[in-house]
Design goal:
This protein is α/β, with parallel strands linked by helices. The protein is built from 13 helices and 11 strands. The strands form 2 sheets. A 7-stranded mixed sheet has the order 1-7-6-5-4-2-3, sandwiched between helices. The protein has a 4-stranded antiparallel sheet with strand order 8-9-11-10. The N and C termini lie far apart (62 Å).
């Protein structure tokens, strides 16, 4: 007989309560030991849990058994990418308030779609206002939306910019499509891969992206001006924190050029926007307030669970966003202010709630302290690397990214072997990259609870141990 949930409600409720309590206890234990727990619970070569061979159950295992299977056969194989010393990508941890907010999001299961459908859309608007205040952006100039991350936010921003460009040719792209449109020149310094993806999806073609980055991965300002003189109504994509180097484009100068030549300025500030939270780094993002659109991630330095991003768009451009994403259906209101008319998804998870609760819990001072510790940790690691025989910095540490190399590594294959040895220490986890043809290592400091006192020594020990193991392996070979 098929499994009937109604007959099992009482036992299922008890099973849920037990599993939830166990999860909460596990989370609390993780938080108490955040600086000593290993990042990888099992070795890389052992990551093939037997649960992957389980067939679909006909009758169902029941919640207690299902929870036990997860805890025993799945959880041990998950990576603690919320660990303070997980530096592979620019990925934050999750503050306790954000975890609770995410739990609330699931339990209350709100749909952000229409204004007036509960209070969720109003909380989203309030969170946008709080974020604008946190980032010292003029409230009177910007509106915003929540997305699943900066990738979606970049797509939405470039879609709005495409609509803007079309209307300057008297073509309503959202209605008529790209037919007859002279494509915009899209100019970037060292764009994130999500910009390429947006170009593909929007029919602009990634090979038409004009890259003008210099050797420091920053915008070549002279080259930009020449391009703007040649291309009318261009779209400029600037970086506020480049993903490899952490470098910041000269936003004030770029913004002035965009105003002079009537170009749309989009700033990819997936993590760099948080520099404006802290007085010592605020100037890095000076000029971003002149942007037409700005993207940022909550699940990076905002330290809320995946996926949470936001797009800020200048109010004078908001209509291009609604024209691009407006939804027409007989059962829906045509009000352009509805959330569904400003983003890709018609109905969306209550993405703002973890960010809202975290901002409410910790305030400006709490986020300023998080950014301060991330910045100071990255600076300290940069100074340590300068003193090492095995390692050297490739670029100065500007904000929260440390780009460096091993002096004995000459190929990407050798770099991967070195990374394998470093990560095998379980003291830290980092990733490799290529920068100007040089195999490099990257520490992306983004976790809210990073601590110089508790985390620098394990990181240094892991880097030295990884270097020794790599050099020994090369000698033996």
């Amino acid at each position: 007989m098929p499994y009937e949930i109604n007959k099992e409600q009482a036992s299922e409720a008890l099973a849920f309560k037990a599993a939830a309590h166990a999860l909460i206890e596990s989370f609390i234990e993780d938080e108490k030991n955040a600086h000593v727990l290993p990042i990888y619970k099992v070795h890389a070569e052992q990551r093939a849990p037997s649960v992957l061979n389980l067939p679909l159950s006909l009758q169902g295992e029941g919640l207690s058994r299902a929870a036990a299977v997860f805890q025993d056969q799945v959880a041990p194989y998950l990576v603690r990418n919320h660990h303070a010393r997980f530096f592979n990508w620019v990925v934050g941890g999750r503050t306790p308030a954000a975890v609770l907010g995410d739990f609330y999001t699931t339990v209350f299961d709100q749909i952000v779609m229409l204004c007036g459908h509960g209070v969720a859309s109003q909380i989203e608007n309030q969170t946008i206002q709080w974020l604008l205040e946190l980032f010292d952006l003029p409230l009177q100039d910007f509106q915003g939306i929540f997305t699943t991350g900066a990738t979606e936010a970049n797509l939405c921003a470039l879609a709005a910019a495409r609509q803007w460009h079309g209307e300057r040719q008297k073509i309503n792209v959202s209605d008529a499509g790209l037919y007859g449109l002279q494509p915009p020149a899209v100019i970037a310094s060292a764009p994130h891969a999500s910009i390429d993806k947006a170009m593909q999806v929007l029919g602009l073609g990634r090979r038409h992206l004009i890259k003008t980055g210099n050797s420091a991965a920053c915008m070549d300002l002279a080259a930009l001006e020449k391009l703007l003189q040649h291309h009318q109504n261009a779209i400029v994509v600037a970086n506020c924190g480049e993903v490899n180097t952490g470098s910041f484009d000269s936003l004030e100068t770029i913004a002035a050029l965009c105003r002079q030549y009537n170009a749309w300025l989009h700033v990819d500030a997936a993590f760099g926007l948080f520099a404006r939270c802290y007085p010592a780094t605020h100037a890095l993002a000076e000029g971003i307030e002149w942007a037409d659109s700005i993207t940022c991630d909550g699940h990076k330095l905002g330290n809320v669970p995946y996926g949470c991003g936001f797009l800020f768009i200048n109010k004078k451009n908001y209509t291009y966003l609604t024209k691009t994403f407006s939804t027409v259906a007989p059962y829906l209101s045509g009000d352009h202010d509805h959330p569904m008319n400003t983003r890709v998804a018609n109905s969306q998870r209550f993405l703002a709630l973890p960010m809202w609760l975290s901002l409410l819990a910790y305030g400006k001072a709490g986020y300023q302290d998080m950014v301060k510790r991330q910045y100071e940790f990255a600076q300290a690691m940069g100074e340590w690397i300068k003193k090492q025989e095995a390692y050297e910095l490739i670029m100065p540490v500007v904000f929260n990214i440390v780009l460096f190399r091993h002096k004995k590594v000459a190929s990407s294959e050798d770099n991967q072997q070195l990374i394998k040895q470093i990560n095998a220490t379980n003291q830290l986890s980092l990733s490799g990259t290529m920068f100007n043809g040089i195999p490099a290592l990257r520490l992306a400091v983004a976790n809210w609870c990073i601590s110089l006192d508790q985390d620098q020594q394990p990181v240094c020990e892991g880097l030295l141990a990884g270097s020794h193991a790599y050099l020994f392996e090369k000698e033996v070979a």
